[in-house]
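Hey L., structure's done. Input below.
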Amino acid sequence: MYRRIYLDHAATTPLRSEARAAMAPFLDEYSGGNPSSLHAEGQRAKREIDKARVIISEALGCDFAEVTFTSGGTEADNAAILGILLAAAPKRRHLIVSAIEHEAVIRTGLFAQRLGYEVSMAMPDRHGIVSADEISALIRDDTALVSVMHANNEIGVIQPIREIAEVAHSAGALMHTDAVQSFGQLDFRVADLNADLMSISAHKIYGPKGIGALYVRDGIPIEPFIHGGGQERERRAGTENVAAIAGFGAAVKCMILERSNEAARLSALRDMMFDEILREMPEARINGDRDRRLPNNVNISLLGKDAETMIVGLDMEGVAASAGSACTSGSIEPSHVMRAMYLRDDEIGATIRFTLGRSTTQEDVVEAVERLKKVVGRQRSLTH
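Output:
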């Protein structure tokens, strides 16, 4: 039986021990405290939330009160887009999103259209980069919000968010960026990107699933996405998930200490994996800009091969990989990201993504490429 090699960290990351330890008391002996209660148990829970919010706000370089906890990146994206549109001046009925956004942004944009808003789609170039010039061509006097992700979840390409934000602000529009994939891998602050709103998630940085956060710059009017009690400064109603928030804070604290060294290590492994695949498999093509990408992202097309067959074959060989986003109900469908980059159908259908993580070693990379060669070899033999 093969040793399992997990190379799907863009889908989710394993819960790290520090996050689990931070969560444990609030799943056990301290599980009875509601943060809105005035008694000692409630105030203990509130202190834990405040502690995590301080850690996250320091990581983002923002004020404590600018961080709102959500159930994850998807809710944060929805809350940002719909919250800004609903709070915007009546004349601002226009939204710009990029064609390579996560479904949480794409589908929220489609929902906004149903509510009567106009939505424009910014297209990337063949390397997966959405330029500020592309946004400039779409921006209007009635644009309320521009939403472009910091780094793409499928191809890992890093976008010029600061330049795009300058275009948005020049027209009086706000800038939202989905930083779910980049937060754990790139060293940045909200001021570096000039973003007004930013979405992040815990389970991409070795924290628990079901918890995320939305940064909203102080002074920006935003309509609450979830109505009810006055939790989260009346931006997000509902009793807070104290255990998950504690785990999120612990994961961010560890991330801050490790991020720079880990990014350098993973970049070296990523480049080694690209080189090995290109050397061993001449049909391989890199998707997205090779240099302007996340440290852990290896996205390739193996021309003439079938992605689904490769994913299943790799799984049987003990390697967990994907064909792209893991957020479309487990189905392998043609990638809207690849289509937006003008790839051919045969290139899209032959795409496979490996995303490395804390547990990935050089030995893992070498062994994963060897197992990929076996899977590809079997497909070659079946087609000849």
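The CA atoms of residues 11 and 326 lie 6 Å apart. The mean pLDDT is 94.

-- N.
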